[in-house]
């Protein structure tokens, strides 16, 4: 049985990412202080992965406006990320950092390593500015994720972070009513 990483802190890491034409060094210190998404995927030059990464790229400007940074992560190297970025129109539109994790340390820290294959599951982790994991979504390899739904989840997490005592019901959208849990609501929803 596994334990949840919800509300745990980001583990220390050092990695090289391909970002906007350059190789950049990143650590957990670069993540702290802003909302962040770690978006794990199995491998470059595959099938479902580019559809997901392209979907996130299409929503990246909106996430940036929300103060969120995205970090895609696979067990490929930063060199492979560059080669994929240079040869795929879909991946070529990515402007968020693509972290290489060839040792699998980051992937293991988040609990999404498929040990027998050396690949990551499709794992999404949203962290608050303090580096605490607030949202986890993990999929099997054949099931793609939705960036639109990811944006909605981040909006809900940001809302409850600034509205103590309120919670967001299912399918909540910004501007809609929230709930304030109390004895008066028990059995009335």
UniProtKB/TrEMBL annotation:
Lineage: superkingdom: Bacteria
Domain Thioredoxin intervals: 4-159
Any matching Pfam family: AhpC-TSA
Key words of the record: Antioxidant, Cytoplasm, Disulfide bond, Oxidoreductase, Peroxidase, Redox-active center
Compartment list: Cytoplasm
EC number(s) recorded for this UniProt protein: 1.11.1.26
SUPFAM superfamilies: Thioredoxin-like (SSF52833)
Family: Belongs to the peroxiredoxin family. AhpC/Prx1 subfamily.
PANTHER family according to UniProt: ALKYL HYDROPEROXIDE REDUCTASE C, THIOREDOXIN PEROXIDASE
Task of the protein: Thiol-specific peroxidase that catalyzes the reduction of hydrogen peroxide and organic hydroperoxides to water and alcohols, respectively. Plays a role in cell protection against oxidative stress by detoxifying peroxides.
Name by which UniProt lists this protein: Alkyl hydroperoxide reductase C
Gene responsible for this protein: ahpC
